Amino acid sequence: MAAALVGAVTINGPSVAVCNFVVHERCYKVVVSPCSSIAANLIKNPVAHRWSDATHQNAHKHKRKFCNVCRKRMEDVCEYYVHAECQDLAVSDCRESATYLPGVELQLVKHQHHWREGNLPSNSKCAICKKTCWSAECLAGYRCEWCGITCHAGCKKSISEECNFGLLEKIYLPPHAVSVPRTEMPIESLIGVQMSRKDTMSPRSISDEFSSGDSRHRDVEEHTYVRDRSGKEKDDRDEEVLKVYDGDCSLRRRIFRVITVSRLASTEHILTTALHAFHITKDPANFYLTDLYAPEEIALCDPSPVMNLHRKEGKRPAVFLRFKDSENDSGEVRVYPGKIQTLTPFVTVLVTSDTTVTDLVHDAVEQFGLENSQPDFYRLSEVSLDRGVIERVLSSDEKPWDIVKQMGKESLRQMELMRFYLQQTKDPHGTNLALFVGNLPTNLSERNYENLLNNFLGRENKFSSIGPIYYEYGSLVIVYEDTTTAVRSLFRLRECVLEDKQLLVMLMPTIEPNMIPPGVQPLLVFVNIKSGGCQGLELISSFRKLLNPYQVFDLDNGGPLPGLYVFRRIEHYKILVCGGDGTIGWVLQCLDNVGQDSQCNSPPCAIVPLGTGNDLARVLRWGSGYKAGEDPLNLLKDVIEAEEIKLDRWTVVFHSDDDKPQPQVPNPAVVPSSTSEDNSQMYVMNNYFGIGLDADLCLDFHNAREENPDKFNSRLHNKTVYVRMGLKKMVGHKCKDLHREVRLEVDGKVIELPQLEGLIILNILSWGSGANPWGPDKEERFTTPNHWDGVLEVVGVTGVVHLGQIQSGIRGATRIAQGGHIKIIFNSLLPVQVDGEPWVASPGYVVVLKSALKATMLKKTKGTKEKRRTGSSNAQSPGAPPANVQLSDTSSNDNSLL
After folding, report:
1. What is the three-class DSSP state of 315?
2. Pairing between β-strand 287-291 and β-strand 318-323 as defined by DSSP bridges
3. How would you class 566 by CB atoms within 10 Å of its CB: exposed for 0-12, middle for 13-18, buried for 19 or more?
4. Residue 19 to residues 65, 69, 152, 203: CA-CA distances in angstroms?
5. Quick check: 609 and 615 in contact, CB under 8 A?
6. What is the DSSP letter of 58?
7. Residues 529, 638: contact at Cβ < 8 Å?
8. From CA 706, how far away is CA 193, in angstroms rounded?
């Protein structure tokens, strides 16, 4: 941006009075940073930031960061770094993640860099001069939020404007392939892509110029004096600290700015200082100050306005900053073209108190030089940047200048930022708006779902179509052809409660597959934020910064189904699951249910292991558990370089001789695929299935964790509890002489069992947090096992001591059989577990048979980190078989024992 932008505010020597920008005299002509007082006006399409809770920014605590508003040092931050007290002055220029335009061909799309100033990584090198371009002392250098390229401010002009998304191009969902419904509500609050945060954030460092009160600082003066930068007390220097409110709204919110002026200052000086504090650059002659604590609101006037202010005990003097609305019957407003393609970023239109919206539209269309000037072809919206981006469609008879003046009464800062948008009356993206609705009863008929929703919505909010319906999960999609009705229905449904559960409702984005470049396989990321303490929260925040936020989904917000629905039309994409083995099973199960309605019915899945266990992740080389401090960018690079393999999946059918139905598995990761009238239930197994001792221990551990979940927050504690439970089992348990209670058939042959207390059927060679019960190859009568050969391994455990020896790696389990069809008959109540989810099964029999579906998984390339450091190639031949599995014996899974 041109250096002339800085000159738009008062400059005294080499520093700017409003935004604390300091520059050498010799460097003044090459400044590219706009002053924060006018930066908001330079954004054509403002996009609200998705503020992160400061308490979750642990990764940045050891680094020095600087506020992008006041440019001063700070501590806890989000990707756009601002003090909590500077948040109201932040520029709404977050990345625009959905920019699809109908009619524009892919080869004509040129995506531009999204530059962010300062707070660069400590190893940043300029892409042009190759020199260090970061600083720990101030805001310095620029970084593209899309591709990660860094450069000096002076070198930025030498970089091509087009961005190719850098190292992540192969898995990046391009913004020009995504469209979002055009509604009057902030889109980030509808689709659920922003981090949840407290409405009021506690200030971490308060500067002299920028200080604000929040709900916990309601005019309570905690300090009797304020120190300036030199440490001297203001009271000793004949100065006064004043609170300034910029309107009725700021007074209600208790949000103010603090200014320091001489007790002998003139009204003009106080007014100018107050305007600078709120980054207002309009003519000071249009504003005045009033005494907040005076019996009547009257304007301050010379002489000695500070000394004449009314005061309250224990509180600073306070003033109102007001707009002279009664003296201004006309003025200028800016009209922006929004998504309309024009060469002009905005036009300035003169308006009066008699100017209507229709008049303003006509003048704006004429100034933009648009061909179609029919009045009903365009509409006008009021866009407010008050803590986000809020749009309101205006009616044709409203008066724009009255709107501006009314906004000025509420907040002069918001009046400064408020703008008008010219848009096509008809949404160019089409009229079909999809709402995802969850937390409905499961397995109803389509007619019953329709009747249920119609009862909630009423006839005036009826949807145009319904489907797909995810019967097993009580979720579905309804489609509207009218934006207003869709938004009204969304809020109506969000207020509905059914069976003590509030309905989950989200507005879905649309992905245009023809706008995804050849060779790009967008990565669909699922994060289980409940896994691994706060690791899930940190990961979802990091991935939304590195990727397009619309390709990163929180599993706590509707599960995998919303993401799979959004990606259903993409022919080739990948999935990254951040969670434990149970989370992976959950995603694979959902893929089974939606695959037939999707272009890609078996996308390859990678894993970031969170929580405990993580046996499947270990087998696929993704590690025993994600460690805080790992670079999320490296995780995504590993996904790009990983190789595809197949994973056998098995159907476990329980048939009970009891009249009572089998109990439901508590975790949603293992959902019964069907329940028949003859008391049979089916489950999908990916890892292993156990009967007897290991399932009994798993059940005790699960019950203890359910009773006191807060205590099971560390692996050390989990192992201690597990060992204690194992010692208790040595005295006596209900799985003694299991071999007498069960009958085992493998591929139709009855297998004679030795003395056992537990049976384990393995699909993968990792169990119980990394142990290998099968052990190394040593017997010729068994084939070398793997997880894609259509064969299961059956092993036995003789007791608690044997179980401990297996988990510690001292010895393996007792090898019993291999086969593709296994039947186990048992005559009494026995503990069982499928993929770490335990319960007590009634007498009957269980059959394990190969599922018709196989999962496509991504296996991390062996030695990826070392190869990346040395710069060697990670390329592998596409048909190469998977390498031998390297197992670890440490750590654990969110749905397994440890």
Report:
1. coil
2. antiparallel
3. buried
4. 16, 7, 20, 19
5. no
6. G
7. no
8. 30
419-424 vs 330-336, strand pairing mode:
parallel
CA angle, 151 as apex, 150 and 152 as ends, to 5°? 145
Sign of the torsion formed by the C-alpha atoms of 809, 814, 815 and 816: negative
User: What is residue 656's DSSP assignment?
Assistant: E
Nearest Cα neighbor of 525 from 568, 474, 486, 579 is 579
Cα–Cα distance list, 581 to 482, 530, 587, 601, 622 (Å):
41, 13, 10, 21, 12
Q: How many other C-beta atoms can be found within 10 angstroms of the C-beta atom of residue 202?
A: 13
Residue 373 clears pLDDT 70, i.e. is over it? no
* Contact indicator for 56, 541 with CB cutoff of 8 Å: yes
Query: What does the H/E/C string look like for 492-514?
Result: HHHCCEECCEECEEEECCEECHH
Give, in order, the Cα–Cα distances in Å from 531 to each of 537, 582, 609.
Answer: 9, 10, 9
Residue 668 has pLDDT above 70, yes or no: no
- The token duo for 796 is 């036995």
817-832 in b/e form (b: 16+ CB < 10 A) is: bbbeebbbbbeeebbb
| Residue 16 reports pLDDT greater than 60 | no
Handedness of CA 689, 691, 693, 699 (dihedral sign): positive
Residue 863: its pLDDT value, please?
67
**Among all chains, which residue has been given the structure tokens 């960061």?**
65
**In the chain, what's the furthest Cα-to-Cα distance?**
106
pLDDT digits over 89-131, tens only? 665 556 778 888 887 889 888 888 988 888 888 889 999 999 9
CA distances from 831 to 136, 759, 828 (A): 58, 11, 10
Q: For residue 466, how many other CB atoms are within 10 A of its CB? A: 16
- Pull the structure tokens for residue 541: 């925040």
Give the three-class secondary structure for 12. strand
- Separation of alpha carbons 292 and 816, rounded Å: 85
Q: What is the DSSP annotation of 803-858? A: HHHHHHTSS-PEEEEEESEEEEEESS-EEEEETTEEEEEPSEEEEEEE-S--EEEE
What type of residue sits at position 782?
A: F
Distance, in Å, from the CA atom of 393 to the CA atom of 379, rounded to the nearest integer, reads: 7
Q: Is the pTM of this model over 0.85?
A: no
